[in-house]
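Two quick folds needed for the group meeting slides. Do the first one here.
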Amino acid sequence: MRHVIRDANRQILAVYAEPQPGTEPIAPDDPEVVAFATESDSEAALRALLASSDEDLIRIVEDLINVLIDQNVILLTDFPAGAQRKLLRRQGVRQKLQSMDAIHPQRGR
C-alpha cells in the first residue's frame, strides 16, 4: 500500500511508502499513482513506483520458477544451494499460510 497527499482538486502531490499525517492509502498500481510517478521528473517518485512493484515482481518470478519446476523444464537442483534454500523456505511459508487460510478463511492475507 502507498499513501498519497492530494491537493484541493484531488490531484496527487506526493506519494509515500508509509503513512504520513494527512495522507490517504492507495494501491501502488493505481493508475493515478503510476501516472504521477511516470509523468513526474521526481527521482523519488520514480524510485517509489519501482519499489512498489518489486513485491509483485518477486511473486511473479517465484510463480514462474514453480511452473518451470512443475513442468520439468528446470530442476530445483539446477539452482545454487543458497537459492534452493530460499525457494524451499518461501514454499514452506506459503504452505503454512494456505493451511492457516483453510482453518481461518475469514482472516485476510
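Then this one, please, same format:
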Amino acid sequence: MTPFGEKVRFLRRERGISQRDMAASIGVSPAYLSALEHGKRGVPNWGMVQKIIGFFNIIWDDAEELERLAGQSDPRVVIDTAGLSSRATELSNLLAETIASLDEPEIEALIRQLRAARRG
C-alpha cells in the first residue's frame, strides 16, 4: 500500500463510500481504484488527484496533503546513485535488500531520521 492509497482508502471508508460508487463518480473502474488503494498502480497523474480531491470535497491543507502523498507514492522507486559516493550506493542497496524485513517502528524511525537529515 502507498501513502496516497492508504489516505484515499481512509477517506472513502470514513465516509462510508464503496469502491464501486467512488470509481463510478470519478470515472474509473473499481479494479483501477482498488489497485490505486493497494499500491499496485503508479503515482496518479495530477488530473486524477484533482478528481479525488473534488470527490471528497476537501480543500486547503487536506488537499495539499493528498497532493503531497500522491507524489510520494511510487511503489516502484529507482534510485540513481551514479555520480554519488560509494556509501550512497551502499545505502540504497542496503535499503532495497532490507526494507521488506523492517517492522513499522523501524520504518518510522528511518523516515524521521532521513527527514531530519534533509532539513539539515
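Slide caption for protein two: The chain has two domains: 3-71, 86-119.
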